[in-house]
Amino acid sequence: MKMERKKRGASATARSQAVLSGALCSGERAATSAPGRGRVAPLGLKNQSRVKLNIVRCPPVTTVLIRRPDLRYQLGFSVQNGIICSLMRGGIAERGGVRVGHRIIEITGQSVVATPHEKIVHILSNAVGEIHMKTMPAAMYRLLTAQEQPVYI
């Protein structure tokens, strides 16, 4: 997708138009490259007459599959208020795709968005077999639930 602008801040305008047109969805990231440079640069290029906007698919929700044979195996991560705080290297959670800084949205098909911390810990500590979880970056969760406002620069 190419958009031409002669004003300063053309990339921000291009990004805004992409969002408004539906070409850029929540969870996708945009990067621009300046002609002749051959590298990706952050949005906000100055004094460029042409901006190339590349849409990178990056869905906000990540699906995780933890295989826990029985209760003797540790899950290998810690959670605080639904957010994954730390991860044991090489543990079954890391192998399953768990990421630090992600908010747990769902555990085995059950939404845990408004679930108290103690109940999330109880569900996870008693789960055995294949544990399917859906997570998303905590910052994205806060933006989508209007707990935080984006900062425009």
From TrEMBL:
List the SMART domains.
Answer: PDZ (SM00228)
Gene3D superfamilies, alphabetized: 2.30.42.10
Alphabetized PROSITE patterns for the sequence:
PDZ
Swiss-Prot/TrEMBL keywords: Repeat
Q: Answer yes or no on keyword Repeat.
A: yes
| Alphabetized InterPro entries for the sequence | APP-Binding, PDZ, PDZ_sf
Ranges that cross the membrane? none
Which one Pfam family would you cite for this protein? PDZ
All copies of the PDZ domain together span 63-139
Name this protein carries in UniProt: Amyloid beta A4 precursor protein-binding family A member 1
